[in-house]
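agent> Task received from the user: take the single chain below, predict its 3D structure, and emit structure tokens. No templates, no multimer pairing.
agent> Plan: (1) validate residues, (2) run structure prediction, (3) serialize to tokens, (4) report one or two observations.
agent> Step 1 OK, no nonstandard residues flagged.
tool_call: predict_structure(input=
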Amino acid sequence: MKTNIDQAVILAAGKGTRIRRDGLTLPKPLVPVGGITLIKRAILTAKREGVKKFVIVVGCDGDRVKAALQNDEDYQGLELVFVENELYDLSNGVSVLQAKPHVRGEFFLMMSDHIVDPAIYRTLQKTPAGEGLVLAVDKKLNTIFDMDDATKVKTAADGRIDEIGKEIDSFDAVDTGVFRCSQQLFTELSAHYEIHGDASLSNGVQQLAARGHARTADVGTAWWQDVDTPETIKHAHKLLFASLTKPIDGIVSKTINRRFSKCVTRLLMNTSVTPNHMTTVGLLVGLAASVVTAMTTTSSLWLLALGGVLYQLSSMLDGCDGEIARLKFKHSDSGEWYDTVSDDIINLCYQVSVGYALFQITGNSLWLQIGLATFVLGWGVAAILYRKLLTSGSGTHLALDFGLNNADAGLFTRVMAKLEFVAHRDFYALLLMMLAIIGPAALKVALVMAFATVFFTGTQWFIASIGSSSQSGRRKTARAGG
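)
tool_result: status=success, residues=482
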């Protein structure tokens, strides 16, 4: 029976001499990367993957490290145990030994100065340590930033560790600094320490490897970085910001919106600005777009273009709240809902303002009626989707299944799947800005398209709901017949 590991040992006792050479006075675990300290990122990353107890071994500047971690609401629900290593001048295996009385069974072992992809923990959760340990290794050798300082690993064909160390000549992987360990690691380190008066973690791994009890788990495409120097801090930021791009981002988001929003996020990451602050900024800019657009007359058509630019700016800012949330572990259910409702307010209000502007310019009330119809129908569809989200426990439309990937989908659904990109905000916001700049004639087409998009979205949800209900009914009938 597999059991997820919910305890971890974090080594935070070292002097951090390499990073202090450039005049930095902070203890290395407290160096900020991506808006939070290294050790906080280590804790919250592991917390996301189910770890609840952290044994933190401190030494050099231990009081400062402990003070920084205490009374932080982000650690609510976690057990933080601080262990003092007075022999922090010795190798890191001595720090590992200090944690022995505080862990039972298998545990994760990681370094306070490493940033890692959460996927590494998911990989190790699937790989029991047995009578030894499992080391997460990276075989993408061409991606290693500082190979000279990396701990190299030579593996056997079956994944067992043959050799480990910074100076070995032949290797096919690199140590990521994350282990899944059994209690046997303490036994090997203790034996080595008794003989030599010192012990490194690599010594313990070598001892287990000699008995065939040290294995590896390849992290695959996952990323990580050991932060030791100003150069590695810069590279760590590069990796973190690269991870902020979502797999579902469209071409407009990847090439325009994300580049802009990441620049804003980089400027704000070390401030007290929260995701909800940025949602509010985006909402205000979006509402400003509606107000400016609604003020357009035949003598001030430039306001139409300005409104379109503000609408696109709101779309580009929309990524900042999620980026800050992911970067600084500030996700909340209420924030997710706030972002979703804000987006709907911005989009539907803008359609009304476009309809009103076209009415002001042409004198034809049809355009105002289409804008109002889009607004009313849009909120009707939104209300239905909100109800579904409330039952699902999510707060984002992305969590909803519109049935676009169903193998037995009908013609209408297959067409909608091909045109799904049109309903993505990054695409239609940019399109609307361009049409607003072109002028009223182009915006007439855009307003009709907006109404059609809302109508077809509601129709597809209705089709998907019927299909889901039918499948549920068939399953119940099958169970009853069984």
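agent> Step 4: summary for the user.
DSSP finds 16 helices and 13 strands in the chain.
agent> Done.
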